[in-house]
Amino acid sequence: MPLGLIALALGGFGIGLTEFVIAGLLSAVADDMGVSVPTAGYLISGYALAVVVGALALTPVVNRWQPKRALQLLMVLFTVGNAASALAPGYAALLGGRVLAALAHGAFFGIGAVLAASLVAPAKKAGAISIMFGGLTIANVLGVPLGTFIGQQWGWRATFAVITVVGLVALAGITALVPDAPAASARPDLRAELAVFRNGQVWYSLAMTVLVFGGMFGAFMYIEPLLTRVTGFSDGVVPWLLVLFGVGLFFGNLFGGRWADRALTRTLLALTLALGLALVAFALLADHKLAALLLLPAMGFFGFGATPGLQMRVLDHAAAAPTLASSANIAAFNVGNFLGVWLSGLAIGAGFGWVSPLWVGAGFAATGLVVLIAATRGPRAKAPAVREPVAV
Hints:
Order of helices and strands: HHHHHHHHHHHHHHHHH
Shape: globular
Number of helices: 17
Strand content: under 5%
Largest sheet: none
Distance between the termini: 19 Å
Structural class: mainly alpha
Radius of gyration: 19 Å
Number of strands: 0
């Protein structure tokens, strides 16, 4: 395995940590800042929207540079944003720090995913992408529960301080391990790159990303109050429960990448259907502790198992502009994150209870399944039989 993949996964770990750790600290941040839990949820949805802006606005700019230089700059931006979050004097400043860190997210994964795919043989591209995204899953297996524990013991600011250190370590790893590669072009033809969005299959792919990811993380981001106020677990148990969810993410990402390399469409169909069923089952059995112990990892496995395939599908149908399309798909992940969290927050605020995010997520997954079925019957539905290496 190329050492550069390890460095990319390390960067993904840091970004995954800052994006998702807030889910285990939502009540603590809300209490400390004197806001409601749904209002604190804007720290999640605001982050997601900033990722979209960063992915679409920063990627065309930094794509002119050598990939390694671009990744270094993005990791600096991420680290500064987390330091600002740790020192934030109030809610608005905390939201600003989150937004600053989020601006690096989309471009980092967009450039990094293309770079990861270029480091391996064509038949192993989805697997290489899954290694990079493995940093996200490790963040959920170890980082998010540990960050939640740190926040419970020493305050949520300590968690963001630790994430700042992780960002510095990731920057060092990228500097030491990621190989230099030439820039895609000194003056990329933006009009030619945008032409890939005329392909209906690219839009199908982006829509599926929005719906599948939104279904899983819209439910997950409110999991802490669900587990404590509905299922009946104590606050001290929550970090360990997040470990279970993270284990599901890790193995879902691992096997999902392998399955996608073998049968992309069948893998996405099966995982999307399974995600919807898991969310429905969780909603019906939310007050049973044993069910929660089983369905938390299942939700993570099925939801994140689709991630390498969703990214690979976009790259298959947008070979003429892989970095822009990859970043657009990262933006789509976060549009889904925003919509899932926003609609779930509306459902909670409307009085439908802490279980309602699971129903919202199930609706997202069901809609994603419909879109995927439509995509298989749409124009140019068949992906290229042979995947060429992706130029960086």
